[in-house]
Amino acid sequence: MKIRPIKFKKAKKSDHHKAAGWKKRRLKYIALIPSIITMMNGACGFMAIVFASRSPELRFGLFLMRNYNMTPFVLAAYMVILAMVADMLDGRIARLTRTTSSFGGQLDSLADTISFGVAPAFLMLKLVEYNLSYFGYEDLTPVTLIGRAVFFSAIFYTMCAIVRLARFNVENDEDISSHMNFSGLPSPAAAGVVVSLVIFHQQFLLGISDRTLIMLTVSALPVITFFTGILMVSRIRYPHLANQLLRSKKTLPSLLLIFATGFFLVWNIQLTMAIGFCGFALFGILRWLLSILKLRFANKLP
Fold this sequence. Notes:
This protein is mainly alpha-helical. It has one domain (29-300). It has ten helices and two strands. A two-stranded antiparallel ribbon has the order 1-2.
């Protein structure tokens, strides 16, 4: 009797994946309108980097025509502000159309990394570099002490923004009630602190022509950027202003406060944005300090 050798069937690669419980996930569809708005967010961040790298002697007006209205620094800052508007709209439109997805969340974080992480840090770096050279410090390089401090502040802020967005993706909950507060300063608000000070410096302080005040603002900007990065990765609670304003009824003083804010925006948008963003960042710190003091005072009571 002739014995035939047993032939073993070679397992396919997909069989090993199935045996291991691994299944390849392929994206089948995306929400078109929210994704386009999110990509506009990233595009605005990229344009902010492009404009910040241009020569400060250039001037741009509407439709990017050269004139004497805006410096590239101001235009870059407003690109970041426009990215904030897109970031606020994409998630809200996705929830209204019930098209929220994991892809949308990841895309939003990648766009936020450009617009609220890289762009503000690069803008701060170029503004400080230009002003220090303008006032006689022409050797701002990574070798000098001032240059090292400014570069470290920009890099540190960018890394904190990346960590902040990655942590948000891991800890994010789909429950709407959990979106009323943030753990740490949100990256759009952190970027708002930096770019609002840039706009304030370029369009308000330069009109005063006070060299000492201008130099103090430029010197303080890297320090503010550094501590803003720390606030992003902290556990200090910050309110989600959009959700808290739109999801509940408000008292008459709240309505008057919103009206006064709109009035000051029309009166002086540069000063209002600087006070608003910096005040929001300080609000979380003050509330955190008050909560600690209240806790310690309560523990001392018999």
